Amino acid sequence: STDAPLLRVKDLAVRYGSAQALFDVSFDLSPNSALAVLGPNGAGKTTLARTLSGLVPSCGGSAEFAGQDLLKLTAPRVRRAGLLHLPEGRGVFPGLTVQENLRMALTADKQARNPGLERAFEIFPVLAERRRQPAGTLSGGEQQMLSLARALMVSPRLVIADEMSLGLSPKAVDIVFASLARARDNGVSVIMIEQFARRALDFADQGLILHRGRSSWSGPAQEAGEELLHRYLGGA
Ligand code: ATP
């Protein structure tokens, strides 16, 4: 496509003190598409997510998001620019109802008249059914769905989902993938950090495999066959 990329990352480098965690990582993400970021433990996946979302400083390279220089923005400004990072862990407030959790995503002045709540319930009917239920009583997959629905309340252009399926049952993992598919159907691009490589690649348009902070493979997701996964991920 001739679309300008929504996100263009070039030669990104990050260090924690004297230890370098990312070396020259580059990729483009088109609008309305999904990227699966894969790699073994310690490869730098979370570091990539945290750097793009303004939580960790870079020491080289560039990242342009919707025409803005992402690496110069603070975390709140990155969010305002339309990039939302869902960190590992669910981050819902278990004692608050589903509806209260969703409302918390909005500033006080917006809460009264924001159509986002009804829209969230349209996208995720399961949450509408459970709107008055404490979030802590939802299943693991439903809690992730709520976490994603809350992120979508502020109409992001890109969501970075870090290990959303971690520790979930197979059925809950299905819910997570279906929820991310819904987000994408609603025009949100997705960077998915995943342990389930095959599933993530089936979902995504593009793949990026990191190994010790370097990109060891990137390309169209459907080109990542079993042999390639075995070579780079040890058959994950
Ligand atoms: P996992 O799949 O285990 O979550 P990951 O691919 O997300 O791993 P990162 O968490 O990005 O990997 O870590 C990349 C490297 O950076 C690792 O060697 C890690 O020990 C190191 N690292 C991460 N965070 C910090 C930090 N705050 N200070 C120092 N080193 C860090």
Give the topology, please.
Elements (H helix, E strand, L loop, with lengths): L6 E10 L2 E11 L4 E5 L6 H8 L7 E6 L2 E2 L5 H6 L2 E4 L11 H6 L4 H4 L4 H8 L1 H5 L10 H13 L5 E5 L7 H16 L3 E5 L3 H7 L2 E6 L2 E7 L5 H8 L3
Parallel strand pairs: 3-8, 3-9, 6-7, 7-8
Antiparallel strand pairs: 1-2, 1-4, 4-5, 9-10
Helix pairs in contact: 7-8
Let me know the number of strands: 10
Number of DSSP helical runs: 10
Give the terminus-to-terminus CA distance: 31 Å
Largest sheet: 6 strands, mixed
Question: Residue-averaged pLDDT, rounded?
Answer: 90
Bound molecules: adenosine-5'-triphosphate
- How are strands sequenced across the largest beta sheet? 6-7-8-3-9-10
Structural classification: alpha/beta
Proportion in helices: 25-40%
Anisotropy-based shape: globular
In N-to-C order, the SSE pattern is: EEEHEEHEHHHHHEHEHEEH
Radius of gyration, taken over Cα atoms and rounded to an integer in Å: 18 Å
Tell me what portion of residues adopts beta-strand conformation.
Answer: 25-35%
Poorly predicted runs of 5 or more residues: none
Write structural notes for this entry.
With 236 residues, the protein is α/β, with parallel strands linked by helices. Helices cover 34% and strands 26% of the residues. The protein has helices at residues 45-52, 75-80, 98-103, 108-111, 116-123, 125-129, 140-152, 170-185, 197-203, 226-233, and strands at 7-16, 19-29, 34-38, 60-65, 68-69, 83-86, 158-162, 189-193, 206-211, 214-220. The strands form two sheets. A six-stranded mixed β-sheet has the order 6-7-8-3-9-10, sandwiched between helices. Helix 8 (170-185) links the parallel strand 7 and strand 8. The protein is globular. The model has no long low-confidence stretch (mean pLDDT 90). Adenosine-5'-triphosphate binds at residues 16, 19, 21, 39, 41-47.
